[in-house]
Amino acid sequence: MNVLQQWYTPQSGLYRTTGWWNSANAITALANYSRMSHTKKYLPIFANTLHAAQTGHDGFPGFINDYYDDEGWWALAWIDVYDLTGKTEYLQAAGSIFDNMQKGWETETCGGGVWWSKKSKDKNAIENELFLAVAASLANRAKMPEDRQRYLSWAQKEWVWFRDSGMINGEHLVNDGLNISNPAHCTNNGKATWSYNQGVILGALVELNKAAPDPALTETASAIAHAAIEHLVDGQGVLHEPNGAHTGGDVPQFKGIFSRNLMLLNNAFPDDRYQAFARANAESIWAKDRDAANHLGFWWAGPFDLADAARQSSALDALTAAAVVGRAKHR
């Protein structure tokens, strides 16, 4: 974690070497680590980013930009920080972001769902999984009954649409998005089953089940988690992406997102396979994907490739997940 923070820039509230949405994930990794390790060391970082990332040259006021998925990452980050600190300004930030995400819901194409971007027209898994996760999370934390009902209604509407959209394929994996060439009859686009698309939905369904318990939600989450553990790992159980893509700032972030959401599912519904997965991946990262300076790379099965904040925060998600799972098992 100390290595990750070497990339943190107080003036911008963001992380050098990576992008805007990745910085939200780094903040989330920092919050989860802080909770797991019972440290208050990084509380000033959260307060600084809440202010600086909105006002700096590279930031966006209110954490609102042209991409609904970017907004969702920041909303989830602030919900995690709220859970850690109990400070309402973080929950208010998440609620304000969600109000903007709502505007992306549209029914003429595919019968519903949130657009990926405010400029280009695509309906993909990730922004809709994030919309579900944020809505359900806010429903569980809202102070007023009417707010709770509003968020829950959005979460349930999103889930029914997502479940029936066709993005969950026959192997119980989530493909990248929808083919919208025929807006009245959208179909699964058959594109990559990225690890993070298998991850965000797990945390989202845990939150929705907490808000409105339904065995079908946990059955679906379990099916997706087990499918990912079966299809997206190597012979040693170490997570990889469905293809060799690994350049840029996006793909290196993905695997940690799966790991931390699998941890959330295991916290709610413990499973020996989730725990074995967490241990195997953390041990592989530490033994095979770490340099002498404790930089953590992209290839969790090794070899170490290069260092940046996306790779570091993603691998840290896996280490934190294994630590949390280990503690729970030995209580």
From TrEMBL:
**Which segments cross the bilayer?**
none
User: What biological process terms from GO does the record include?
Assistant: carbohydrate metabolic process
List the SUPFAM superfamilies hit by this protein, alphabetically: Six-hairpin glycosidases
Query: Which InterPro entries does the record associate with it?
Result: 6-hairpin_glycosidase_sf (IPR008928), Glyco_hydro_76 (IPR005198), MUG_Protein (IPR053169)
Name of a matching Pfam family: Glyco_hydro_76
Report the protein name in the record.
Alpha-1,6-mannanase (GH76 family)
- The species is Edaphobacter dinghuensis
